[in-house]
Amino acid sequence: MYTVTITSQGQITIPVKVRRQLNLDKSKIATVRVEDNKAIIEPVVDIMSLAGTLHKYAKKNMPIDKIIALEKKAAQEAAVERYKRFLKNSSAKLLVIKPRKRTLK
Q: Locate the SpoVT-AbrB domain: which residues (predicted)?
C-alpha cells in the first residue's frame, strides 16, 4: 500500500513499484474506473505495439479467416487472463457452477 498526494489539478504520481508491476512504464495509457468506492487503474495496450505479431502466419500463406480465428482465440485467452488477475487482486471469489450428474432410475 502506498500513500500518494493529489495535486490541486487532481493528479497523482503512481509509485514506480506499482508502475512496474502494472507494466505502466511501457504503456502511456491506462483506464481508471471506480468500483466499490475504489479507483481501479489498468494499463491499455497500444494497438500499434501489436503490429507485426501475426506476420508468421501471413508468411505461410494462411487464409485470412484462419488468421481472424486465431486473433479471436488470442483475444479470448487474454480476457480470461485479465479476469484471473482481477480476481487475484480483488476480494472477489470465482463462482464455479458444475452441472449435476444425472442418475438413471
A: 1-46
> What's the whole-model pTM score?
0.42
Neighbours of 5 (CB within 10 A): 7
Domain range holding 89?
52-95
Instruction: Please tell me the distance from the alpha carbon of residue 76 to that of residue 40, in angstroms, as a whole number.
Output: 22
Q: How confident is the model at residue 33, as a pLDDT? A: 87
Residue 62 is which amino acid?
Answer: M
CA atoms of 43 and 88, how far apart (whole Å): 16
Q: Are 12 and 4 in contact (CB under 8 A)?
A: yes
Residue 9: band (very low, low, confident or very high) from pLDDT cuts 50, 70, 90: very high
Rg (CA), the chain: 20
With cell 503512481, the residue in question is 14
Task: Using DSSP, state whether 83 is helix, strand or coil.
Answer: helix
